[in-house]
Structures are given as structure tokens and as C-alpha cells.
Design goal:
- This protein is an alpha/beta fold.
- The chain has 2 domains: about 1-140 and about 315-345, Quinone Oxidoreductase, Chain A, domain 1; about 160-290, Rossmann fold (3-Layer(aba) Sandwich), CATH 3.40.50.
- Helix 4 (about 180-190) links the parallel strand 13 and strand 14.
- Strands 3, 7, 8, 11, 12, 19 and 20 form a 7-stranded mixed beta sheet that branches.
- The model has no long low-confidence stretch (mean pLDDT about 95).
- It is globular, with a radius of gyration of 20 Å.
- It has helices at about 40-45, 100-105, 145-165, 180-190, 205-215, 225-235, 250-260, 280-285, 300-310, 325-335, and strands at about 1-10, 10-15, 25-35, 50, 55, 60, 65-70, 90, 95, 115, 130-135, 140, 175, 195-200, 215-220, 240-245, 260-265, 290, 320-325, 345.
- The protein is about 30% helix and about 30% strand.
- The chain starts with a strand and ends with a strand.
- Bound molecules: zinc ion (ZN) (2 copies).
- The site of one zinc ion (ZN) has 5 residues, from loops.
């Protein structure tokens, strides 16, 4: 079968691999339907690492995915403890916490130090035609959610978790820096959660346009002074909650500058150089509450409800769908941020 593996920085290849065998106890065999390209995949392709996780042998990447179950191992239950069956379409949560350590028991499975993650070394990801996954990571999706939208449930889960950390209250004001897929979903969720206004900023005009369409007061970050814009609009007060969902460079400081005194700052983006750029005095004088967003906690059921109800138009975020063979080209295109690129979906089978 075909698989896309990362052999080193900027070295993605379509390789031939053996098909996996039959699923063991609790696992299922999945025919992978679609995989979304995520910002963290782009970091991995560029640098051969994500944060301090370095890979040392070729790795099948891809962690935002869905597929159809083709075989069920003994006793395999889904993420809601229901039996899985052949033929079900499922979205897959890529993270597998141990479920038994102190951190898991305290209710932070997203921070489990013993977890594995599909598509992050050493666990192979989803850019392959078939793979075995744990039943507990699977969440059945209705036919009304297409394959591409099914992969975006992972992205939506990340955004839901970030908004949860922001502890938004009705009629509060929000700023979102970075209108990639996660930033866009945060914009929409903040509005659904009752924010009175969401100021959104991005460097790409097509993203600004989409954020505007989705209900934000959106601005091109290079054409306006983002901080001045927010301060003028809020009468010098700043916003209640500022989300950084971009490349986490000087944008972290900018988000902190936009937050009101006593406000909240939620950091979602991952910086290329693994450094946090924030003036101590900004955070201290304002007494900011800073939350670092790490993955998600059982957000798939909520994400599926939002997608099914029509509250979230996930398809509207998909800029292009390409076949598996074209995955390396698609990553290149995404890395260059060619005009119009938002979420690229790779159709695997
Ligand atoms: Zn991702
Ligand atoms: Zn654990």
C-alpha cells in the first residue's frame, strides 16, 4: 500500500509499505479516507521536529484524519464506550493518553506524560491507505459530515479546548491573532459562545476576507496597526480574552498588549524556534491570566454536534482536496502559503 513518509527536513516521499495485519484486542483496522494538513505537520516537515520531539527514522505523518472501519478487534469500543462495527465512518482522535497516571486521573489526559500520538514520532500517522488504530480513539460520524470535514473535527477540537481555556462569558470582547483554520474556528466558537465582538488579524487577505464572512471584525495585519485598531475600538480598554493562533512569534506580545488589565491570554500557536516572546512587565502590570493550550480533552462529541447541527461550516475552510500521490506537492504549496491556501485535505482512498 502507499504511504507518505517524512525522511528528513523537507523530504517527504510516497513509499510502498506492507499492509497492516488484523487488529488486536480493542483495536480496529481503518481504511483511511482523508487527512488534513496541520500547522504542526508543517513545522515537522520544515524542521524535522515539533518542539523538542525529534524523529530519527522515516515517519508516516498526518494526525487529522477519518476513515472507514474494515475489521474490528475483540472488544473494540469507541471513544464513548460503544461497540464498533465494520463499515462505520469514524473520525479519529490522534492522542492516546495512558488513562491511569496521576495527570490523567486529575482530569488532564491532554497533558499525559505517557501518551502516544498518531503522526508524531515514534507513532506512525494517517497518510497511508490502511492503519490500525485504538477503538477508544474513534468517534463515529454521520454521513452528513463529509470526509474533509471529518478530518477538521480534530482542528475544531483544538479550537474548542482553546476557547474553554479562555473561560469566555456572554458579551465579552475577544481578539484572535492568526486566521488559519484554528484561528477561524476560534472566531466562530467565540461568537457562538456569546462574545459581543471578535477582532481578528491575519497577514493573508483571503483569510481576512473569510474571517469577516464568519462574523469577525477582521483586519489585514500589515495594512493597519493591529494594537491601535483594538485599543481605539475598545476605548483604550483592551479585550477580555486574546487568543494567539498564529506562528507565536511577536504575535504573542501583540496579543498580550491587546488584552485588558486582568484579562486572559490563550496561547495556541506553536513557534518555530521553541521560544516564548513576551515582555514580563506587560503580563505582570496587567495581571494577565496566561493559558497555554495543549491539544484537547474529549472534545470530539462536541465537535461532531457542532458540525451536525450546521453551526459550523467546516467545508468552508477547505481550500483544496488532493490525492495521496500529490501530498508532497500539497505540503510545498502549504509551506509557501500560496494565495487562497486555508486547509488542504489529502484524499487517501
Ligand atoms: Zn493538528
Ligand atoms: Zn496518563
Amino acid at each position: 500500500m502507499k504511504a507518505v513518509r517524512l525522511h528528513g527536513p523537507r523530504d517527504l516521499r510516497v513509499d510502498a509499505l506492507n499492509e497492516p495485519g488484523q487488529p488486536g484486542t480493542g483495536d480496529v483496522l481503518l481504511r483511511v479516507g482523508a487527512v488534513g494538513i496541520c500547522g504542526s505537520d508543517l513545522h515537522m516537515v520544515l524542521d524535522g521536529r515539533i518542539g523538542d520531539t525529534v524523529f530519527t527514522s522515516p515517519l508516516v505523518i498526518g494526525h487529522e484524519f477519518m476513515g472507514t472501519i474494515t475489521a474490528v478487534g475483540e472488544g473494540a469500543l469507541d471513544g464513548s464506550q460503544r461497540p464498533l462495527r465494520v463499515g462505520q465512518r469514524v473520525a479519529v482522535d490522534p492522542s492516546t493518553p495512558c488513562g491511569h497516571c496521576e495527570i490523567c486521573e486529575r482530569g488532564y489526559p491532554n497533558l499525559c506524560p505517557n501518551h502516544t500520538f498518531y503522526g508524531v514520532y515514534p507513532t506512525p500517522g494517517a497518510l497511508q491507505e490502511c492503519m490500525i488504530v485504538h477503538g477508544q480513539n474513534c468517534f463515529p460520524i454521520p454521513d452528513s459530515i463529509g470526509d474533509g470535514a471529518g478530518t477538521l473535527l480534530e482542528t475544531l477540537g483544538v479550537a474548542i479546548h482553546a476557547v474553554d481555556l479562555g473561560k469566555l462569558r456572554v458579551a465579552e470582547t475577544v481578539a484572535v491573532i492568526g486566521c488559519g483554520p484554528v484561528g477561524m474556528l476560534i472566531v466562530k466558537l467565540a461568537l457562538l459562545a456569546g462574545s459581543s465582538v471578535v477582532y481578528a488579524f491575519d497577514k493573508f487577505p483571503w483569510r481576512v476576507e473569510k474571517a469577516q464572512k464568519w462574523g469577525a471584525q477582521a483586519y489585514h495585519a500589515d495594512s493597519v496597526d493591529p494594537l491601535k485598531t483594538v485599543m481605539e475600538a475598545t476605548g483604550g480598554r483592551g479585550v477580555d480574552v486574546a487568543f494567539e493562533a498564529g506562528w507565536a512569534d511577536e504575535s504573542v506580545q501583540l496579543a498580550a498588549d491587546m488584552a485588558r488589565c486582568g484579562g486572559r491570554l490563550v496561547l495556541v500557536g506553536i513557534p518555530g524556534d521553541d521560544r516564548l516572546y513576551l515582555r514580563h512587565s506587560t503580563a505582570r502590570r496587567k495581571g494577565l491570566t496566561i493559558r497555554m493550550s495543549r491539544r484537547m480533552k474529549h472534545t470530539y462529541p462536541r465537535a461532531i454536534r457542532l458540525a451536525t447541527s450546521g453551526a459550523m461550516d467546516l467545508d468552508d475552510l477547505i481550500s483544496e482536496t488532493v490525492p495521496l500521490d500529490q501530498a508532497p506537492t500539497a505540503f510545498d504549496k502549504n509551506l509557501r502559503y500560496e494565495a487562497g491556501v486555508q486547509k488542504i485535505i489529502i484524499k487517501v482512498t
